[in-house]
Protein backbone atom coordinates (compact mmCIF):
# COMPACT_ATOMS: atom_id res chain seq x y z
CA UNK A 1 0.00 0.00 0.00
CA UNK A 2 1.47 3.45 -0.89
CA UNK A 3 2.46 5.62 2.03
CA UNK A 4 1.54 9.27 2.43
CA UNK A 5 4.00 10.80 4.87
CA UNK A 6 2.32 13.25 7.28
CA UNK A 7 4.60 15.39 9.42
CA UNK A 8 3.04 15.13 12.86
CA UNK A 9 2.89 17.82 15.53
CA UNK A 10 5.24 16.64 18.29
CA UNK A 11 4.14 19.40 20.67
CA UNK A 12 0.55 18.16 20.50
CA UNK A 13 0.86 14.38 20.50
CA UNK A 14 4.57 13.59 20.47
CA UNK A 15 5.92 10.47 22.13
CA UNK A 16 6.57 12.19 25.47
CA UNK A 17 3.10 13.71 25.59
CA UNK A 18 1.44 10.43 24.67
CA UNK A 19 3.44 8.49 27.25
CA UNK A 20 2.53 11.15 29.82
CA UNK A 21 -1.15 10.70 29.00
CA UNK A 22 -0.85 6.92 29.17
CA UNK A 23 0.92 7.08 32.54
CA UNK A 24 -1.80 9.35 33.86
CA UNK A 25 -4.46 6.92 32.69
CA UNK A 26 -2.74 4.07 34.54
CA UNK A 27 -2.12 6.27 37.58
CA UNK A 28 -5.80 7.17 37.82
CA UNK A 29 -6.66 3.46 37.88
CA UNK A 30 -4.04 2.70 40.54
CA UNK A 31 -5.19 5.65 42.62
CA UNK A 32 -8.76 4.39 42.44
CA UNK A 33 -7.69 0.93 43.60
CA UNK A 34 -5.67 2.50 46.43
CA UNK A 35 -8.55 4.68 47.63
CA UNK A 36 -10.84 1.63 47.57
CA UNK A 37 -8.39 -0.46 49.62
CA UNK A 38 -7.09 2.09 52.11
CA UNK A 39 -8.29 5.24 53.83
CA UNK A 40 -6.71 7.69 51.40
CA UNK A 41 -8.24 10.32 49.19
CA UNK A 42 -8.14 9.96 45.40
CA UNK A 43 -6.95 13.37 44.17
CA UNK A 44 -5.10 12.27 41.01
CA UNK A 45 -8.14 12.94 38.85
CA UNK A 46 -7.90 16.66 39.58
CA UNK A 47 -4.44 16.87 38.01
CA UNK A 48 -5.61 14.81 35.05
CA UNK A 49 -8.47 17.11 34.14
CA UNK A 50 -6.08 20.08 34.15
CA UNK A 51 -3.69 18.17 31.88
CA UNK A 52 -6.54 17.28 29.51
CA UNK A 53 -7.87 20.85 29.54
CA UNK A 54 -4.53 22.28 28.42
CA UNK A 55 -4.24 19.70 25.62
CA UNK A 56 -7.79 20.38 24.42
CA UNK A 57 -7.11 24.13 24.27
CA UNK A 58 -4.06 23.56 22.07
CA UNK A 59 -5.97 21.09 19.88
CA UNK A 60 -8.86 23.49 19.32
CA UNK A 61 -6.52 26.35 18.41
CA UNK A 62 -4.62 24.18 15.93
CA UNK A 63 -7.83 22.90 14.33
CA UNK A 64 -9.12 26.44 13.97
CA UNK A 65 -5.82 27.63 12.48
CA UNK A 66 -5.67 24.64 10.11
CA UNK A 67 -9.18 25.31 8.83
CA UNK A 68 -8.53 29.03 8.42
CA UNK A 69 -5.32 28.68 6.45
CA UNK A 70 -2.79 26.17 5.25
CA UNK A 71 -0.59 26.71 8.29
CA UNK A 72 -1.24 27.21 11.93
CA UNK A 73 -0.62 30.39 13.83
CA UNK A 74 2.79 29.10 14.89
CA UNK A 75 3.84 28.26 11.33
CA UNK A 76 3.69 24.55 12.08
CA UNK A 77 2.29 22.20 9.48
CA UNK A 78 -1.50 22.32 9.44
CA UNK A 79 -3.27 19.44 11.13
CA UNK A 80 -4.68 16.72 8.89
CA UNK A 81 -7.90 14.98 9.85
CA UNK A 82 -5.88 11.80 10.32
CA UNK A 83 -3.96 13.52 13.11
CA UNK A 84 -6.99 14.78 14.98
CA UNK A 85 -9.17 11.71 15.51
CA UNK A 86 -6.65 9.61 17.52
CA UNK A 87 -5.87 12.47 19.92
CA UNK A 88 -9.51 13.48 20.24
CA UNK A 89 -10.60 9.92 20.99
CA UNK A 90 -7.82 9.52 23.56
CA UNK A 91 -8.79 12.71 25.40
CA UNK A 92 -12.48 11.82 25.41
CA UNK A 93 -11.84 8.33 26.81
CA UNK A 94 -9.40 9.64 29.41
CA UNK A 95 -11.86 12.25 30.62
CA UNK A 96 -14.74 9.80 30.63
CA UNK A 97 -13.02 7.30 32.94
CA UNK A 98 -11.25 9.90 35.10
CA UNK A 99 -12.20 9.73 38.79
CA UNK A 100 -13.01 13.07 40.40
CA UNK A 101 -14.25 13.28 43.99
CA UNK A 102 -17.87 14.41 44.11
CA UNK A 103 -17.06 16.33 47.28
CA UNK A 104 -14.85 18.73 45.32
CA UNK A 105 -17.52 20.72 43.53
CA UNK A 106 -15.08 22.93 41.63
CA UNK A 107 -13.18 19.94 40.22
CA UNK A 108 -16.49 18.28 39.32
CA UNK A 109 -17.61 21.44 37.53
CA UNK A 110 -14.40 21.54 35.46
CA UNK A 111 -14.73 17.82 34.67
CA UNK A 112 -18.33 18.19 33.50
CA UNK A 113 -17.37 21.23 31.40
CA UNK A 114 -14.58 19.20 29.78
CA UNK A 115 -16.96 16.37 28.97
CA UNK A 116 -19.37 18.81 27.35
CA UNK A 117 -16.61 20.47 25.35
CA UNK A 118 -15.03 17.21 24.21
CA UNK A 119 -18.38 15.71 23.22
CA UNK A 120 -19.16 18.83 21.19
CA UNK A 121 -15.73 18.80 19.54
CA UNK A 122 -16.03 15.07 18.80
CA UNK A 123 -19.37 15.55 17.04
CA UNK A 124 -18.14 18.62 15.18
CA UNK A 125 -15.10 16.76 13.89
CA UNK A 126 -16.90 13.67 12.58
CA UNK A 127 -19.92 15.53 11.19
CA UNK A 128 -18.20 18.50 9.56
CA UNK A 129 -14.72 19.35 10.75
CA UNK A 130 -12.82 16.55 9.04
CA UNK A 131 -14.07 17.76 5.65
CA UNK A 132 -12.63 21.21 6.31
CA UNK A 133 -9.17 20.06 7.43
CA UNK A 134 -6.28 19.43 5.00
CA UNK A 135 -5.99 15.91 3.57
CA UNK A 136 -2.56 14.71 2.46
CA UNK A 137 -3.45 11.14 1.51
CA UNK A 138 -6.19 9.65 -0.65
CA UNK A 139 -7.28 7.48 2.23
CA UNK A 140 -6.69 7.45 5.99
CA UNK A 141 -6.89 4.42 8.22
CA UNK A 142 -8.07 3.72 11.74
CA UNK A 143 -7.92 0.69 14.01
CA UNK A 144 -11.22 -1.10 14.53
CA UNK A 145 -9.97 -4.63 15.15
CA UNK A 146 -8.70 -4.29 11.57
CA UNK A 147 -7.47 -1.61 9.16
CA UNK A 148 -10.51 0.48 8.14
CA UNK A 149 -10.95 3.76 6.28
CA UNK A 150 -12.05 6.72 8.37
CA UNK A 151 -14.00 8.18 5.42
CA UNK A 152 -16.55 5.43 4.89
CA UNK A 153 -18.81 3.49 7.22
CA UNK A 154 -16.39 4.09 10.11
CA UNK A 155 -17.19 7.81 9.92
CA UNK A 156 -20.90 7.03 10.08
CA UNK A 157 -20.28 4.84 13.11
CA UNK A 158 -18.46 7.66 14.88
CA UNK A 159 -21.25 10.06 14.04
CA UNK A 160 -23.65 7.71 15.80
CA UNK A 161 -21.26 7.24 18.72
CA UNK A 162 -20.94 11.01 18.96
CA UNK A 163 -24.70 11.35 19.30
CA UNK A 164 -24.79 8.71 22.04
CA UNK A 165 -21.87 10.45 23.75
CA UNK A 166 -23.76 13.75 23.65
CA UNK A 167 -26.81 12.09 25.19
CA UNK A 168 -24.67 10.55 27.93
CA UNK A 169 -23.00 13.87 28.65
CA UNK A 170 -26.41 15.55 28.80
CA UNK A 171 -27.50 13.05 31.45
CA UNK A 172 -24.25 13.74 33.32
CA UNK A 173 -24.89 17.49 33.26
CA UNK A 174 -28.46 17.02 34.47
CA UNK A 175 -27.27 14.68 37.24
CA UNK A 176 -24.57 17.10 38.31
CA UNK A 177 -26.93 20.06 38.42
CA UNK A 178 -29.50 17.95 40.23
CA UNK A 179 -26.97 16.84 42.82
CA UNK A 180 -25.92 20.45 43.46
CA UNK A 181 -29.54 21.52 43.89
CA UNK A 182 -30.23 18.51 46.10
CA UNK A 183 -27.24 19.26 48.34
CA UNK A 184 -28.23 22.92 48.64
CA UNK A 185 -31.82 22.02 49.56
CA UNK A 186 -30.58 19.33 51.95
CA UNK A 187 -28.22 21.81 53.60
CA UNK A 188 -31.00 24.38 54.03
CA UNK A 189 -33.39 21.78 55.44
CA UNK A 190 -30.67 20.52 57.74
CA UNK A 191 -30.04 24.01 59.13
CA UNK A 192 -33.77 24.60 59.57
CA UNK A 193 -34.13 21.26 61.33
CA UNK A 194 -31.21 22.09 63.61
CA UNK A 195 -33.00 25.21 64.75
CA UNK A 196 -36.32 23.44 65.21
CA UNK A 197 -35.20 20.24 66.90
CA UNK A 198 -34.52 20.07 70.60
CA UNK A 199 -31.43 18.35 71.89
CA UNK A 200 -33.06 14.96 72.41
CA UNK A 201 -34.44 14.68 68.89
CA UNK A 202 -31.12 15.80 67.49
CA UNK A 203 -29.41 12.97 69.27
CA UNK A 204 -31.79 10.35 67.93
CA UNK A 205 -31.53 11.50 64.34
CA UNK A 206 -27.82 10.88 64.08
CA UNK A 207 -27.92 7.18 64.61
CA UNK A 208 -30.37 6.69 61.80
CA UNK A 209 -28.38 8.66 59.31
CA UNK A 210 -24.91 7.63 60.28
CA UNK A 211 -24.82 4.76 57.87
CA UNK A 212 -25.44 7.02 54.92
CA UNK A 213 -22.07 8.66 55.47
CA UNK A 214 -20.13 5.48 54.84
CA UNK A 215 -17.88 5.92 51.83
CA UNK A 216 -18.90 3.69 48.95
CA UNK A 217 -16.03 1.87 47.34
CA UNK A 218 -15.77 1.70 43.56
CA UNK A 219 -17.19 -1.45 42.05
CA UNK A 220 -14.57 -3.91 40.72
CA UNK A 221 -16.67 -4.29 37.57
CA UNK A 222 -16.53 -0.54 36.91
CA UNK A 223 -12.78 -0.60 37.47
CA UNK A 224 -12.37 -3.41 34.93
CA UNK A 225 -14.38 -1.48 32.33
CA UNK A 226 -12.24 1.60 32.93
CA UNK A 227 -9.06 -0.43 32.48
CA UNK A 228 -10.30 -1.98 29.23
CA UNK A 229 -11.28 1.47 27.92
CA UNK A 230 -7.81 2.81 28.71
CA UNK A 231 -5.99 -0.10 27.08
CA UNK A 232 -8.27 0.07 24.05
CA UNK A 233 -7.64 3.80 23.64
CA UNK A 234 -3.87 3.33 23.83
CA UNK A 235 -3.90 0.58 21.20
CA UNK A 236 -6.26 2.61 19.01
CA UNK A 237 -3.98 5.67 19.03
CA UNK A 238 -0.66 3.89 18.51
CA UNK A 239 -1.87 1.62 15.72
CA UNK A 240 -3.61 4.50 13.94
CA UNK A 241 -0.43 6.60 14.01
CA UNK A 242 1.65 3.73 12.63
CA UNK A 243 -0.79 2.74 9.90
CA UNK A 244 -1.03 6.32 8.62
CA UNK A 245 2.77 6.73 8.49
CA UNK A 246 2.72 9.88 10.65
CA UNK A 247 6.31 10.95 11.20
CA UNK A 248 8.07 13.16 13.73
CA UNK A 249 6.04 12.00 16.73
CA UNK A 250 7.89 8.84 17.73
CA UNK A 251 10.88 10.36 19.54
CA UNK A 252 11.62 12.71 22.42
CA UNK A 253 13.46 15.29 20.32
CA UNK A 254 10.98 18.10 21.02
CA UNK A 255 11.70 19.68 24.45
CA UNK A 256 8.05 20.62 24.92
CA UNK A 257 7.21 16.94 25.51
CA UNK A 258 9.16 16.60 28.75
CA UNK A 259 7.02 18.73 31.05
CA UNK A 260 3.84 16.60 30.80
CA UNK A 261 5.95 13.44 30.93
CA UNK A 262 7.69 14.50 34.15
CA UNK A 263 4.41 15.61 35.74
CA UNK A 264 2.80 12.26 34.94
CA UNK A 265 5.78 10.34 36.34
CA UNK A 266 5.58 12.42 39.53
CA UNK A 267 1.91 11.53 39.97
CA UNK A 268 2.67 7.87 39.33
CA UNK A 269 5.43 7.81 41.98
CA UNK A 270 3.20 9.69 44.41
CA UNK A 271 0.57 6.96 44.20
CA UNK A 272 3.20 4.27 44.81
CA UNK A 273 4.51 6.21 47.81
CA UNK A 274 0.99 6.42 49.28
CA UNK A 275 0.46 2.70 48.73
CA UNK A 276 3.78 1.83 50.39
CA UNK A 277 3.00 4.04 53.37
CA UNK A 278 -0.44 2.52 53.88
CA UNK A 279 0.95 -1.01 53.59
CA UNK A 280 3.61 -0.27 56.22
CA UNK A 281 1.02 1.08 58.64
CA UNK A 282 -1.29 -1.88 57.99
CA UNK A 283 1.52 -4.40 58.49
CA UNK A 284 2.57 -2.62 61.68
CA UNK A 285 -0.95 -2.90 63.06
CA UNK A 286 -1.10 -6.59 62.16
CA UNK A 287 2.27 -7.25 63.81
CA UNK A 288 1.18 -5.55 67.00
CA UNK A 289 -2.18 -7.29 67.04
CA UNK A 290 -0.47 -10.67 66.70
CA UNK A 291 1.66 -10.07 69.76
CA UNK A 292 -1.22 -9.93 72.22
CA UNK A 293 -1.72 -12.96 74.45
CA UNK A 294 -4.93 -14.94 74.14
CA UNK A 295 -5.97 -14.19 77.70
CA UNK A 296 -5.66 -10.44 77.03
CA UNK A 297 -7.32 -10.44 73.61
CA UNK A 298 -10.33 -8.51 74.89
CA UNK A 299 -8.16 -5.75 76.40
CA UNK A 300 -7.65 -2.92 73.95
CA UNK A 301 -4.69 -1.67 75.98
CA UNK A 302 -3.36 -4.97 77.32
CA UNK A 303 0.16 -4.28 75.99
CA UNK A 304 -0.20 -0.54 76.85
CA UNK A 305 2.14 2.15 75.60
CA UNK A 306 5.62 0.77 76.14
CA UNK A 307 5.20 -1.94 73.52
CA UNK A 308 3.30 0.18 71.03
CA UNK A 309 5.82 2.96 70.38
CA UNK A 310 9.55 2.94 69.60
CA UNK A 311 10.25 5.04 72.68
CA UNK A 312 7.87 4.47 75.55
CA UNK A 313 7.59 6.32 78.83
CA UNK A 314 7.03 4.40 82.06
CA UNK A 315 6.20 6.30 85.20
CA UNK A 316 7.95 5.23 88.35
CA UNK A 317 7.19 7.57 91.20
CA UNK A 318 7.87 11.09 89.96
CA UNK A 319 10.44 10.09 87.33
CA UNK A 320 9.90 9.32 83.67
CA UNK A 321 12.21 6.73 82.16
CA UNK A 322 12.54 5.93 78.47
CA UNK A 323 12.58 2.26 77.53
CA UNK A 324 13.34 0.78 74.12
CA UNK A 325 11.19 -2.24 73.24
CA UNK A 326 12.52 -5.23 71.34
CA UNK A 327 13.60 -4.02 67.89
CA UNK A 328 12.47 -7.24 66.25
CA UNK A 329 8.92 -6.58 67.41
CA UNK A 330 8.66 -2.97 66.25
CA UNK A 331 10.72 -2.67 63.06
CA UNK A 332 7.71 -2.28 60.80
CA UNK A 333 6.04 0.19 63.15
CA UNK A 334 9.19 2.32 63.30
CA UNK A 335 9.17 2.58 59.50
CA UNK A 336 5.53 3.59 59.57
CA UNK A 337 6.16 6.23 62.21
CA UNK A 338 9.08 7.62 60.20
CA UNK A 339 6.80 8.01 57.21
CA UNK A 340 3.98 9.54 59.23
CA UNK A 341 5.90 11.80 61.61
CA UNK A 342 9.32 12.22 59.96
CA UNK A 343 8.91 15.97 59.59
CA UNK A 344 7.38 16.43 63.06
CA UNK A 345 4.40 18.65 63.65
CA UNK A 346 3.09 21.40 65.87
CA UNK A 347 0.29 20.63 68.33
CA UNK A 348 -1.92 23.59 69.29
CA UNK A 349 -4.48 22.79 71.98
CA UNK A 350 -7.51 24.56 73.43
CA UNK A 351 -9.79 23.52 76.26
CA UNK A 352 -10.28 23.37 80.01
CA UNK A 353 -8.72 21.51 82.95
CA UNK A 354 -8.67 18.24 81.00
CA UNK A 355 -6.02 19.88 78.79
CA UNK A 356 -4.53 22.79 80.80
CA UNK A 357 -0.88 22.44 81.83
CA UNK A 358 -0.61 25.51 84.05
CA UNK A 359 -2.17 28.56 82.39
CA UNK A 360 -4.81 29.06 85.11
CA UNK A 361 -2.17 28.50 87.79
CA UNK A 362 -0.10 31.29 86.23
CA UNK A 363 -3.08 33.65 86.41
CA UNK A 364 -3.81 32.78 90.03
CA UNK A 365 -0.16 33.25 91.00
CA UNK A 366 0.57 36.46 89.10
CA UNK A 367 -2.87 38.08 89.11
CA UNK A 368 -2.75 38.59 85.35
CA UNK A 369 -2.83 36.70 82.10
CA UNK A 370 0.47 35.42 80.67
CA UNK A 371 2.16 37.98 78.39
CA UNK A 372 1.19 37.69 74.70
CA UNK A 373 3.28 35.08 72.94
CA UNK A 374 4.44 33.36 76.14
CA UNK A 375 4.41 29.55 75.84
CA UNK A 376 4.37 28.03 79.31
CA UNK A 377 6.82 25.29 80.27
CA UNK A 378 5.63 21.68 80.62
CA UNK A 379 4.23 20.83 84.03
CA UNK A 380 2.84 17.76 85.77
CA UNK A 381 0.94 19.92 88.29
CA UNK A 382 -2.38 19.46 86.56
CA UNK A 383 -5.92 18.42 87.44
CA UNK A 384 -5.02 14.83 86.52
CA UNK A 385 -2.25 14.53 89.09
CA UNK A 386 0.39 14.22 86.37
CA UNK A 387 1.04 15.08 82.76
CA UNK A 388 -2.04 15.82 80.67
CA UNK A 389 -2.60 14.31 77.24
CA UNK A 390 -0.89 17.07 75.14
CA UNK A 391 2.39 16.46 76.96
CA UNK A 392 2.01 12.71 76.39
CA UNK A 393 1.59 13.32 72.65
CA UNK A 394 4.58 15.65 72.56
CA UNK A 395 6.78 13.15 74.42
CA UNK A 396 5.78 10.22 72.26
CA UNK A 397 5.98 11.93 68.87
CA UNK A 398 8.43 14.79 69.30
CA UNK A 399 5.71 17.30 68.44
CA UNK A 400 6.07 20.92 69.53
CA UNK A 401 3.21 21.60 71.95
CA UNK A 402 1.51 25.00 72.28
CA UNK A 403 -1.14 24.74 74.99
CA UNK A 404 -3.65 27.57 75.41
CA UNK A 405 -6.18 25.67 77.56
CA UNK A 406 -7.35 27.20 80.85
CA UNK A 407 -8.86 25.19 83.69
CA UNK A 408 -12.50 26.10 84.28
CA UNK A 409 -12.96 27.50 80.78
CA UNK A 410 -16.15 27.25 78.79
CA UNK A 411 -16.32 27.50 75.03
CA UNK A 412 -17.84 30.97 75.23
CA UNK A 413 -18.76 33.36 78.03
CA UNK A 414 -21.95 34.02 76.13
CA UNK A 415 -23.41 30.81 77.59
CA UNK A 416 -23.11 31.91 81.22
CA UNK A 417 -22.77 35.71 81.30
CA UNK A 418 -20.79 37.65 83.90
CA UNK A 419 -18.32 34.91 84.76
CA UNK A 420 -15.28 36.55 86.34
CA UNK A 421 -11.85 35.35 87.41
CA UNK A 422 -11.21 37.08 90.72
CA UNK A 423 -7.42 36.80 90.41
CA UNK A 424 -7.37 38.99 87.29
CA UNK A 425 -10.64 40.87 87.62
CA UNK A 426 -11.30 40.06 83.97
CA UNK A 427 -13.95 37.82 82.39
CA UNK A 428 -13.19 34.16 83.00
CA UNK A 429 -11.00 32.91 80.11
CA UNK A 430 -12.99 31.08 77.44
CA UNK A 431 -11.89 29.25 74.31
CA UNK A 432 -13.53 31.62 71.84
CA UNK A 433 -12.35 34.61 73.86
CA UNK A 434 -9.04 34.56 75.72
CA UNK A 435 -7.63 31.27 74.36
CA UNK A 436 -8.14 32.13 70.70
CA UNK A 437 -6.86 35.66 71.29
CA UNK A 438 -3.73 34.30 72.99
CA UNK A 439 -3.17 31.88 70.11
CA UNK A 440 -3.58 34.57 67.46
CA UNK A 441 -1.16 36.84 69.33
CA UNK A 442 1.45 34.07 69.54
CA UNK A 443 0.98 33.22 65.87
CA UNK A 444 1.35 36.87 64.86
CA UNK A 445 4.64 37.01 66.79
CA UNK A 446 5.96 33.95 64.95
CA UNK A 447 5.98 31.75 68.06
CA UNK A 448 4.02 28.94 66.38
CA UNK A 449 5.01 26.98 63.29
CA UNK A 450 3.38 27.03 59.89
CA UNK A 451 -0.35 26.12 59.79
CA UNK A 452 0.23 23.38 57.21
CA UNK A 453 2.49 21.60 59.73
CA UNK A 454 0.13 22.06 62.67
CA UNK A 455 -2.59 19.95 64.26
CA UNK A 456 -5.23 21.95 66.13
CA UNK A 457 -7.07 20.13 68.93
CA UNK A 458 -10.13 21.26 70.89
CA UNK A 459 -11.58 19.62 74.00
CA UNK A 460 -14.24 21.73 75.68
CA UNK A 461 -17.73 21.34 77.14
CA UNK A 462 -17.29 19.84 80.60
CA UNK A 463 -17.92 23.15 82.37
CA UNK A 464 -20.51 24.24 79.80
CA UNK A 465 -22.67 21.21 80.56
CA UNK A 466 -21.81 20.72 84.24
CA UNK A 467 -22.62 22.34 87.55
CA UNK A 468 -21.23 25.69 86.40
CA UNK A 469 -23.32 25.71 83.24
CA UNK A 470 -26.44 24.06 81.87
CA UNK A 471 -26.84 21.62 84.75
CA UNK A 472 -27.17 24.45 87.28
CA UNK A 473 -29.48 26.54 85.10
CA UNK A 474 -27.08 29.49 85.08
CA UNK A 475 -27.09 29.80 81.31
CA UNK A 476 -28.63 32.72 79.47
CA UNK A 477 -32.28 32.32 78.43
CA UNK A 478 -32.95 29.79 75.64
CA UNK A 479 -29.35 28.53 75.61
CA UNK A 480 -29.02 24.81 74.75
CA UNK A 481 -26.37 22.22 74.03
CA UNK A 482 -26.58 23.27 70.38
CA UNK A 483 -25.07 26.62 71.35
CA UNK A 484 -22.12 24.78 72.87
CA UNK A 485 -21.59 22.77 69.68
CA UNK A 486 -22.01 25.84 67.48
CA UNK A 487 -19.34 27.57 69.54
CA UNK A 488 -16.97 24.65 68.93
CA UNK A 489 -17.52 24.93 65.20
CA UNK A 490 -16.97 28.68 65.43
CA UNK A 491 -13.53 28.04 66.93
CA UNK A 492 -12.66 25.62 64.13
CA UNK A 493 -13.86 28.18 61.60
CA UNK A 494 -11.50 30.83 63.01
CA UNK A 495 -8.62 28.36 62.91
CA UNK A 496 -9.48 27.46 59.31
CA UNK A 497 -9.50 31.14 58.35
CA UNK A 498 -6.07 31.42 59.99
CA UNK A 499 -4.74 28.71 57.67
CA UNK A 500 -5.39 25.58 59.75
CA UNK A 501 -6.33 22.45 57.84
CA UNK A 502 -5.87 19.58 60.35
CA UNK A 503 -8.24 19.50 63.31
CA UNK A 504 -9.13 17.09 66.11
CA UNK A 505 -12.15 17.52 68.38
CA UNK A 506 -12.64 15.50 71.56
CA UNK A 507 -16.23 14.65 72.36
CA UNK A 508 -17.74 14.55 75.86
CA UNK A 509 -16.83 11.89 78.41
CA UNK A 510 -19.76 10.28 80.31
CA UNK A 511 -19.95 13.02 82.95
CA UNK A 512 -22.78 11.24 84.70
CA UNK A 513 -20.24 8.56 85.66
CA UNK A 514 -17.94 11.04 87.41
CA UNK A 515 -17.85 10.73 91.23
CA UNK A 516 -18.89 14.39 91.49
CA UNK A 517 -22.36 13.47 90.28
CA UNK A 518 -22.56 10.06 91.93
CA UNK A 519 -24.18 11.00 95.23
CA UNK A 520 -27.38 9.46 96.59
CA UNK A 521 -30.84 10.96 96.39
CA UNK A 522 -33.33 11.96 93.73
CA UNK A 523 -31.57 15.23 92.91
CA UNK A 524 -28.32 13.42 92.11
CA UNK A 525 -30.21 10.91 89.96
CA UNK A 526 -31.93 13.75 88.12
CA UNK A 527 -28.59 15.44 87.47
CA UNK A 528 -27.12 12.22 86.13
CA UNK A 529 -30.02 11.81 83.72
CA UNK A 530 -29.61 15.41 82.53
CA UNK A 531 -25.88 14.97 82.01
CA UNK A 532 -26.46 11.74 80.11
CA UNK A 533 -28.80 13.57 77.73
CA UNK A 534 -26.46 16.55 77.42
CA UNK A 535 -23.37 14.53 76.61
CA UNK A 536 -25.14 12.17 74.20
CA UNK A 537 -26.68 15.15 72.38
CA UNK A 538 -23.36 16.98 72.04
CA UNK A 539 -21.61 13.84 70.82
CA UNK A 540 -24.38 13.10 68.33
CA UNK A 541 -24.32 16.65 66.97
CA UNK A 542 -20.55 16.58 66.56
CA UNK A 543 -20.77 13.38 64.54
CA UNK A 544 -23.60 14.72 62.41
CA UNK A 545 -22.17 18.19 61.77
CA UNK A 546 -18.57 17.24 60.96
CA UNK A 547 -19.03 15.82 57.42
CA UNK A 548 -21.57 18.51 56.51
CA UNK A 549 -19.35 21.41 57.56
CA UNK A 550 -16.29 19.96 55.87
CA UNK A 551 -18.23 19.61 52.65
CA UNK A 552 -19.70 23.09 52.62
CA UNK A 553 -17.41 25.29 54.67
CA UNK A 554 -13.92 23.83 55.13
CA UNK A 555 -12.79 22.53 51.76
CA UNK A 556 -9.41 20.84 51.87
CA UNK A 557 -9.48 20.36 55.64
CA UNK A 558 -9.28 17.13 57.65
CA UNK A 559 -11.19 16.79 60.91
CA UNK A 560 -11.04 13.89 63.34
CA UNK A 561 -13.38 13.15 66.23
CA UNK A 562 -11.75 11.39 69.19
CA UNK A 563 -14.39 9.43 71.08
CA UNK A 564 -13.21 9.89 74.67
CA UNK A 565 -16.75 8.99 75.77
CA UNK A 566 -16.19 5.44 74.56
CA UNK A 567 -12.67 5.36 76.01
CA UNK A 568 -13.88 6.18 79.54
CA UNK A 569 -16.82 3.80 79.13
CA UNK A 570 -14.38 1.05 78.14
CA UNK A 571 -12.18 1.78 81.16
CA UNK A 572 -15.20 1.47 83.44
CA UNK A 573 -16.19 -1.82 81.79
CA UNK A 574 -12.65 -3.30 81.73
CA UNK A 575 -10.54 -1.42 84.28
CA UNK A 576 -7.84 -4.09 84.49
CA UNK A 577 -7.05 -3.54 80.81
CA UNK A 578 -6.03 0.05 81.48
CA UNK A 579 -5.16 0.43 85.16
CA UNK A 580 -2.54 -1.12 87.39
CA UNK A 581 -3.73 -3.64 89.97
CA UNK A 582 -5.80 -3.22 92.02
CA UNK A 583 -7.79 -1.31 89.40
CA UNK A 584 -10.34 1.17 90.74
CA UNK A 585 -12.80 2.87 88.41
CA UNK A 586 -15.25 4.15 91.04
CA UNK A 587 -13.41 5.98 93.84
CA UNK A 588 -11.16 8.98 93.07
CA UNK A 589 -7.51 8.97 94.10
CA UNK A 590 -7.64 12.48 95.59
CA UNK A 591 -10.62 13.21 97.84
CA UNK A 592 -11.67 16.53 99.33
CA UNK A 593 -14.75 16.24 101.52
CA UNK A 594 -12.95 18.06 103.42
CA UNK A 595 -10.33 17.38 104.58
CA UNK A 596 -8.38 16.36 101.48
CA UNK A 597 -6.59 13.03 101.40
CA UNK A 598 -5.20 10.55 98.89
CA UNK A 599 -6.58 7.05 98.60
CA UNK A 600 -4.21 4.13 99.20
CA UNK A 601 -2.24 2.65 96.33
CA UNK A 602 -0.77 4.12 93.16
CA UNK A 603 -2.35 6.85 91.05
CA UNK A 604 -1.95 4.55 88.04
CA UNK A 605 -4.57 2.25 89.58
CA UNK A 606 -7.32 4.88 89.45
CA UNK A 607 -9.61 6.06 86.68
CA UNK A 608 -10.41 9.32 88.48
CA UNK A 609 -7.82 11.62 90.03
CA UNK A 610 -10.53 13.60 91.85
CA UNK A 611 -14.31 13.81 91.65
CA UNK A 612 -14.33 15.18 88.09
CA UNK A 613 -10.94 14.72 86.42
CA UNK A 614 -9.53 11.53 84.88
CA UNK A 615 -6.18 10.47 86.29
CA UNK A 616 -2.79 10.88 84.63
CA UNK A 617 -2.96 7.22 83.56
CA UNK A 618 -6.15 7.87 81.62
CA UNK A 619 -4.61 11.03 80.17
CA UNK A 620 -1.91 8.71 78.80
CA UNK A 621 -4.62 6.64 77.16
CA UNK A 622 -6.15 9.78 75.64
CA UNK A 623 -2.74 10.76 74.29
CA UNK A 624 -2.11 7.31 72.87
CA UNK A 625 -5.46 7.23 71.08
CA UNK A 626 -4.84 10.74 69.77
CA UNK A 627 -1.58 9.57 68.16
CA UNK A 628 -3.30 6.53 66.66
CA UNK A 629 -6.00 8.74 65.22
CA UNK A 630 -3.44 10.97 63.53
CA UNK A 631 -1.62 7.98 62.07
CA UNK A 632 -4.50 5.77 61.01
CA UNK A 633 -7.42 8.13 60.42
CA UNK A 634 -10.08 5.73 61.67
CA UNK A 635 -9.58 3.74 64.87
CA UNK A 636 -11.63 1.96 67.51
CA UNK A 637 -12.05 5.29 69.27
CA UNK A 638 -11.93 7.80 66.45
CA UNK A 639 -13.19 8.77 63.02
CA UNK A 640 -11.74 11.12 60.40
CA UNK A 641 -13.59 13.19 57.81
CA UNK A 642 -12.09 14.82 54.70
CA UNK A 643 -13.16 18.15 53.28
TrEMBL record:
For this UniProt record, the keywords arranged alphabetically read as follows: Hydrolase, Membrane, Transmembrane, Transmembrane helix
Source organism superkingdom = Eukaryota
Spans traversing the lipid bilayer: 12-36, 48-71, 106-125, 161-185
Q: Which InterPro entries match?
A: GDSL, GDSL_Est/Lipase, SGNH_hydro_sf
Q: Is Hydrolase one of the keywords?
A: yes
One MF term in the entry's GO annotations: hydrolase activity, acting on ester bonds
Q: What is this protein called?
A: Uncharacterized protein
Q: Which organism is it from?
A: Ophiocordyceps camponoti-rufipedis
Amino acid sequence: MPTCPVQGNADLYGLGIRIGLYIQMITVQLSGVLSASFRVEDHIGQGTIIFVASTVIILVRLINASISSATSADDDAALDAVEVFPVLTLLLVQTGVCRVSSRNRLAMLVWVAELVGLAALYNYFWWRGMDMLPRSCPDDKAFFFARVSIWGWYRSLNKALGVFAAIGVAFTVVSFCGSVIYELVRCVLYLVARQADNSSTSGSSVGANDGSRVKQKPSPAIGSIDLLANVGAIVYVEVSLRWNSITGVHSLDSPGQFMPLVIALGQFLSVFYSAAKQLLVMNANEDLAGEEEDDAAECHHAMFHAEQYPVAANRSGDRWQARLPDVSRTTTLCLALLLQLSRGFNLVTFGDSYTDEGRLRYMLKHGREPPPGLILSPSSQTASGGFNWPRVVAQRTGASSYNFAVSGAMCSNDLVPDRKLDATGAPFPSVSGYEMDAFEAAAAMGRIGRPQETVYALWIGTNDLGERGLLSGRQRPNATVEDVVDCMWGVINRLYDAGGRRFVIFNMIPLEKAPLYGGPGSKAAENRNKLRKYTSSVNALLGEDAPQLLRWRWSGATLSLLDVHSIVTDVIAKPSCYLDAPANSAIPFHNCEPPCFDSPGKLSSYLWYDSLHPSARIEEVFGQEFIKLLQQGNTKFGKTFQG
